[in-house]
Every structure is written in structure tokens, then in C-alpha cells.
Design a protein that fits this description.
By secondary structure, the protein is an alpha+beta fold. Helices cover 37% and strands 17% of the residues. It has a three-stranded antiparallel β-sheet with strand order 1-4-3. The protein has a three-stranded mixed β-sheet with strand order 7-11-8. α5 (145-160) packs across α8. The longest helix has 19 residues, at 180-198.
Length: 253
């Protein structure tokens, strides 16, 4: 429904086709439109999206995340983050959490879907000789490393804040009774804190705007649990080593 309303230039059936092929799309256009209107072109091996052409067979479109060329404004993307984080860093963090039973999967989606976390059911997969995966983080493979990092911390925030229930080995309490809005505010607060400490600037304020109302106060979140979870995630990912690699002084405000 939301996608159909957003892509008003395409028929509802075509909007549905786009959503089926790549959930989370934000901006799509043909090769001609990307080149003439935006000075961009599809990346090598980019996957086209198929819709029905009026009075013709089919038409190929490309997601903005599958194009390159002239820069576009940051607000063209649903999630934006910049900073000194690489895919090598992300791979290291994924390896660290795998050792405590947290698996990571990458998925193909548009810009509007960043990631999620879930508690695994009976079909838990074994890892090495230490037990089974208890949780799984899902990351959009099309996002740049800084955005993946902010998402990664956000989802770990949900876990260590107890939003998925308790876990004794990880010393996580059960706090499943908090509202959806409170969960998102708390998890994004953890992400904001650790992103800033690593030197990644994210648009946490933009993300939170959909959950925070004008009368929101600090009473709507548990500050103690947020700070505790931030400390646990920081320790788990050994982010102190990331800090030590940065200059002692930064111009970032």
C-alpha cells in the first residue's frame, strides 16, 4: 500500500511487482532517466527490475542503490551515515558476535529496509563446537559500511536491551513488555552513542522522528538500560580498539 502510494508514476500492479522483486525500494528509474536527469548509470552487474510497459512488453528500472555517478543529496536516502568504518570492520564484528551465538545474514533490498534481529527457533544452526546460534541479525547488503554499522549496533541494542527476551549467558534481562516506540527509541539511542564514539555520524534524529512525539520525555526510555546495553555492545565488539586507531583530537562536533 505505502509503496503503491509512493510510486505514483507507475500503475499499482507495477508498484506491486517492484516491491516483490526488491522490498524497501525508495527511488527507481530507467537507464535513460538516471543518465539524463541525474547523471548516474547502473553499476556493473546491477540487477534490473522488471515492470510491464504500457502498450508494450516490459520495461527495466534500476534502484538508486544500484546506480553510480553524480552525487545525490543525503536526504534522498532513508538511512545515511558517514565515518571511518569499512567492510573489513563489519566482517570482524560479525565474527566476534558469532562466537557468542549470534549469526548474521545479508539480504538484498532497497534503501528503506536496513536490518532486523530475531531469536531463532527450534531449527537453530550449530556453530563450531560451542553450541547453537540463538539469535540472527539481518543486514542490507546494499548499504555502505557506515550504514551497516549503525544498523548493526541498533539491532544489537534491541538484543541487549532485552527486547527479545532474556538470555542468561549474555546477561540480558527480559524487557519484552515495553512499547514498540520505546524499543525503537532505546535501540537507536544505543546506536547513536556508539556511532558517535567510533566517529560515525548517522541520522538518528531523522529515524527517531517517526517515534518521538512532541510530549516525549526522558521518562519514555530507561536511561540505565540504554547505557548498560551500550557498554555491553561496546565490550562485545571490542570497539575500544577502533577508538585507539583514531586521532586523539577530532573536529567532529
Amino acid at each position: 500500500m505505502a509503496l503503491t502510494a509512493r510510486f505514483r508514476q507507475y500503475a499499482p500492479f507495477n508498484a506491486m511487482l517492484l516491491q516483490i522483486q526488491k522490498p524497501g525500494l525508495s527511488h527507481v528509474a530507467s537507464v535513460k532517466d538516471w543518465k539524463l536527469r541525474f547523471g548516474r548509470e547502473p553499476k556493473k552487474d546491477a540487477r534490473p527490475l522488471i515492470i510491464l510497459r504500457p502498450f508494450g512488453p516490459i520495461m527495466l528500472l534500476y534502484d538508486i542503490m544500484d546506480t553510480e555517478g553524480k552525487p545525490v543529496p543525503d536526504n534522498a536516502f532513508s538511512f545515511a551515515a558517514k565515518g571511518d568504518v569499512t567492510q573489513k570492520n563489519i566482517a570482524r564484528y560479525i565474527d566476534l558476535i558469532s562466537k557468542v551465538g549470534i549469526h548474521t545474514e545479508h539480504f538484498d533490498a532497497g534503501d528503506r529496509k536496513a536490518g532486523s534481529i530475531q531469536r531463532l527457533g527450534p531449527s537453530r544452526r550449530p556453530f563450531k563446537d560451542k553450541g547453537v546460534f540463538q539469535f540472527q541479525i539481518n543486514l542490507n547488503r546494499n548499504h555502505d559500511a557506515p550504514i551497516q554499522f549503525a544498523t548493526f549496533i541498533h539491532e544489537l541494542g534491541h538484543l541487549f536491551l532485552g527486547h527479545l527476551g532474556d538470555d542468561k549467558p549474555l546477561k540480558i534481562p527480559s524487557r519484552t513488555n515495553v512499547s514498540h516506540r520505546q524499543r525503537e527509541i532505546e535501540a537507536e539511542s544505543v546506536s547513536y552513542i556508539l556511532c558517535r564514539r567510533v566517529g560515525v555520524s548517522s541520522r538518528s534524529q531523522t529515524y527517531l522522528s517517526g517515534f518521538v512525539e512532541k510530549n516525549t520525555t526522558l521518562e519514555d526510555i530507561d536511561i540505565y538500560q540504554v547505557m548498560k546495553a551500550a557498554g555491553q555492545v561496546e565490550s562485545l565488539l571490542k570497539l575500544q580498539t577502533h577508538y585507539s586507531a583514531r586521532p586523539a583530537y577530532s573536529s567532529r562536533v
